[in-house]
Amino acid sequence: MAAVKASFNSRLRFLLVLAMIAGAVVALRLTDIQLLRHDRYLQLAERNRTQVLYQTAPRGRIFTADGKAVAANAPAFDLYYLSAGPKDEAYFERLAADFAPHLDQSPQELLEKVRKGVKSGKAVALAENLSPKSILPLKEMQLYYPGVYLIEENKRVYPYGPFASHLIGYLGSMEGDEWKNRDLSLDYRLDAKIGKNGLEKKFEKELKGRDGGVFLEVDYRGRVKRVIEDRKWQSGNDIYLTLNYNVQHAAEEGLKNSITGRGAAVALDPRNGAVLALATAPAFDPGMFIPYSDEPQPKSKRISEYNLAVQGVYPPASTFKVITAIAAIEKGNFNPEQTIYCPGFYDAGSRVFKCWGVHGHDNFFDGMADSCDVYFYTLAAQTGSAAIEKTQRMFQIGKPTGIDLPGEKAGNIYGPTKRARNRSYWFIGDTLNLSIGQGELLFTPIKMAQFAAALASKGKIWRPYYLDRIVNSHNGRVLQRGKSELLGTVDIKPSTWDLIYKALKHTVDDGTARRVKINGLNVYGKTGTAQNPHGDDHGWFMAFAGRPGEEPSLAVAVFVEFGKGGAGAAGPIAREMIKAYFGIEDKPAAKPVLSKTDQTVQHMEAENVFSNLRFMQQALEQNIHQGDEP
Fold first, then answer.
1. Which of its termini does the chain have fewer beta carbons within 10 Å around, N or C?
2. Residue 291 · residue 172 · CB < 8 Å
3. Is 383 exposed, middle or buried, given 0-12, 13-18 or 19+ CB atoms closer than 10 A?
4. What are phi and psi of 486, to 5 degrees?
5. Rounded CA gap, 294 and 52, in Å?
6. CATH at 488
7. What is the 3-state secondary structure (H, E, C) of 1-32?
8. Does 294 fall in a domain?
């Protein structure tokens, strides 16, 4: 009997402990629901009894430095009928008859939508993406028809189409991992559009606003009972760039109308590294990626997101002759007035290297202006490849510029030290190729612009930046500012800068870059034609400019893929960019009338050219290296 009683007490204690544990679990759960996560469960309960007609908030706008809104918003309207309104059939018929003409629908079609909404007890869309011209009468009619709601949303628009498209980017629907990695505080919806590329992606958090909407109370069947709240959206923050609209536009128009329509152009402020233009061609229209209606979309949306301005790498060609010159001057014993004879070729002993022309006796200034390969072959042989490589490193060639954009390529430095690290030999031919910017040298267009800016500032190497400021769109408070950053300086003698400036000015005034000469400005520049084994040569032009008596305030680099030559393809684009920056318009020049003496001189010059060509053809019979300036 005692054993039975003991067993019963043991079971009773077990049940008591089990009941206490269950009670504790219930208590903890109640504590969690009522105290710890009260707000969350309250929100879920609210969602169960509410239905929301969302209103997409306007994204923050993107402005150029001169106030052009290159990414903005436009209103998009949807018309809804809420079943909590009147349920009289005669009322429905009047509503359909009055609204149908403004919605491009028949009264019967509209009546069926209203009846469907009333039957389901839910809000029903009568029309979506309404044109702005129809909004005013609809707003007035809404006052006389309870239950009709005009919902205003905002859609992204790009007023200037493909303007700076590779920098600004575009929007698209959220996919896969984007949902997993989304910022929960931004409250994305299933149909949300987010930045997929460029600044739209990089500044998604800053640009996205907070959506509003009409909050409806519904019963357990989801039928609308009443309107709880009409909550206003909050727009995103505005972004101001350092881009100069006129310079960017000139760059894009020039590239689009170039010989191939392919290339890149970059403009920097050499005083701080601010990006004034960053253009890649072909461009694309960002608006084609964000349809807001059921209208047919283009069959193909394939574009090139490859930003050639920061990702394309090409030999710098004759623009590199500036580095060769600096190396020679800094080494010492350099006489800029000493002439070197150019017969159209340079005999390196084991190989003959061709010049693009026959220049005769050229001193340093004429050698730069004529872009004479023979002059720089000779200069490089006297200077040595090690000094040229050292000068490259001073200008940080082979390193990325550090601009805050994804995928920037570093380019490639070229010299005997680099070759030795790869356990390979260096030959005299390598030195000659290096001197005129050929061989294994690689630059991006933005690197070329940084190089031009370093020349303009006499040795200051700035990190390019494009963000001026981010501004709260509600109160105008500045939330973030862009800043310049000095990456390094080039320490060379003032007399070296003087010689380089004089040579580059002579190149624009009287040499291969004379198409870029602009009255009233000091323009310094250098052309380049990069050999291309896969087709036509590429065209380069780099320059910097300023008003007389002032330090240069603009540096540009233009690259035209397969452009055949820098002077003809890239130079005119740079000229338009410089004019746009300084606000200069050309005056039409009167056509000159040639005297008999002038005509005789022109005939003699033409005969001289043909004579030079015949000489070159006889002299260069075999195993001749092609020069790089057409």
1. N
2. no
3. buried
4. -85, 120
5. 22
6. 3.40.710.10
7. CHHHHHHHHHHHHHHHHHHHHHHHHHHHHHHH
8. no
pLDDT at 23 (0 to 100): 75
Residue with tokens 């022109």: 602
Euclidean distance between CA atoms 310 and 408, whole angstroms: 5
Size (the chain), residues: 630
Strand partners, 216: 51, 227
Half-sphere exposure of residue 267: CA atoms within 13 angstroms, side-chain side: 30
Q: Do 225 and 313 lie in a common domain? A: no
Task: Give me the phi and psi of 227, to 5 degrees please.
Answer: -90, 120
At 304 the pLDDT is 65
| Boundaries of domain holding 217 | 50-162+213-241
Cβ neighbours of residue 425 under 8 Å, at least 6 residues apart? Answer: 419
Radius of gyration, CA atoms only, the chain:
35
Alpha-carbon distance 539 to 357, whole Å? 17
Pairing of strands 460-462, 486-489: antiparallel
SS (H, E, C) 495-551: HHHHHHHHHHHHHHHHCCCHHHCCCCCEEEEEEEEECCCCCCCEEEEEEEEECCCCC
| pLDDT at site 593 | 44
At 370, give phi and psi (nearest 5°). Answer: -85, -10
Q: How far apart are CA 216 and CA 124, in angstroms?
A: 13
Task: Tell me what pLDDT residue 184 has.
Answer: 56
Q: Are residues 366 and 225 in the same domain?
A: no
Q: How far apart are CA 187 and CA 183, in angstroms?
A: 8
**Burial class of 505 by CB neighbour count within 10 A (0 to 12, 13 to 18, 19+):** buried
Please give the pLDDT value at position 188. Answer: 76
- What tokens does 562 get? 């397969």
Classify residue 69: in a domain, yes or no. Answer: yes
Q: Residue type at 508? A: V
pTM over 0.90: no
Residue ranges of the chain with pLDDT lower than 70? 1-9, 29-49, 84-85, 176-186, 190-191, 219-224, 289-304, 586-630
- Spatial CA neighbour of 301 closest among 322, 317, 313, 285: 285
Domain final residue, candidates 566, 582, 598 = 582
Domain of 235, CATH number, reads: 3.90.1310.10
The 10 Å Cβ neighbour count of residue 3 is 7
Around 540, how many Cα atoms within 13 Å sit in the side-chain half-sphere? 36
Whether 269 is covered by a domain: the verdict is no
With CA atoms as reference, report the closest residue to 204 among 224, 230, 179, 186.
186
Q: What does 334-361 look like in DSSP terms, one character per residue?
A: --TT--EEESSEEE-SS-EEE-SS--EE
157 within some domain: yes
Please tell me whether residues 232 and 366 are part of one structural domain: no
Per-residue DSSP letter, 486? E
Q: Are 155 and 290 in contact (CB under 8 A)?
A: yes
Q: CB under 8 Å to 198, separation ≥6 — which residues? A: 165, 166, 167, 168, 169, 170
Side chain identity at residue 306, one-letter code: Y
Distances (CA, A) of 130 to 74, 80, 82, 93, 141: 12, 12, 18, 22, 15
Q: How much is the pLDDT for 49?
A: 64
pLDDT for the residue 220? 55
Alpha-carbon distances, residue 438 vs 348, 385, 532 (angstroms): 16, 13, 10
